[in-house]
């Protein structure tokens, strides 16, 4: 898989590049700002881009703006946005602008090398990635008479993992449950929340996130 990186910190970029190369990914190029990133992508579009949410010149939402441009100009390129803080609104904005190949991950999470590499691979393959911290904040948000109150503790655990963009198989591995048990929990969660159970992982994640943000 071919990857490009964008962050104004050279040391941070080099650290991610080394991790990805060690995992067998090809790091095609690095940039310190959005202009440099777009130039690189325009010359040779990669499978995935990893971009910091805050970069020069304003250090606000340059990464999100870059993701939007890439979605419009290079829809085949997956984008993983890294953030130093849990910002659910930004995460939801990112994944809802495209039903595939998008992700939002906290920078603290990249200390887990396997987590970072898996996230890059998933967005590069067209999947969705939502940081567990964002999902936990949405699931735990207090709302009056929420259908979430009807979920059992185990169903909440399944919902949390599902909303991160994980497949049923990944839920099995995370929660140490059998495939049939996970399928039963997923059906129960969707029934209690009144959501349509989409055929693919991306659609069901979007459905869950749409419910959680409501």
TrEMBL record:
<keyword id="KW-0804">Transcription</keyword>
<keyword id="KW-0805">Transcription regulation</keyword>
<feature type="domain" description="HTH luxR-type">
    <location>
        <begin position="144"/>
        <end position="214"/>
    </location>
</feature>
<dbReference type="InterPro" id="IPR016032">
    <property type="entry name" value="Sig_transdc_resp-reg_C-effctor"/>
</dbReference>
<dbReference type="Pfam" id="PF00072">
    <property type="entry name" value="Response_reg"/>
</dbReference>
<keyword id="KW-0597">Phosphoprotein</keyword>
<dbReference type="InterPro" id="IPR039420">
    <property type="entry name" value="WalR-like"/>
</dbReference>
<feature type="domain" description="Response regulatory">
    <location>
        <begin position="2"/>
        <end position="122"/>
    </location>
</feature>
<keyword id="KW-0238">DNA-binding</keyword>
<feature type="modified residue" description="4-aspartylphosphate">
    <location>
        <position position="52"/>
    </location>
</feature>
<protein>
    <submittedName>
        <fullName>Response regulator transcription factor</fullName>
    </submittedName>
</protein>
<dbReference type="InterPro" id="IPR011006">
    <property type="entry name" value="CheY-like_superfamily"/>
</dbReference>
<dbReference type="Pfam" id="PF00196">
    <property type="entry name" value="GerE"/>
</dbReference>
<dbReference type="InterPro" id="IPR000792">
    <property type="entry name" value="Tscrpt_reg_LuxR_C"/>
</dbReference>
<dbReference type="InterPro" id="IPR001789">
    <property type="entry name" value="Sig_transdc_resp-reg_receiver"/>
</dbReference>
<dbReference type="InterPro" id="IPR058245">
    <property type="entry name" value="NreC/VraR/RcsB-like_REC"/>
</dbReference>
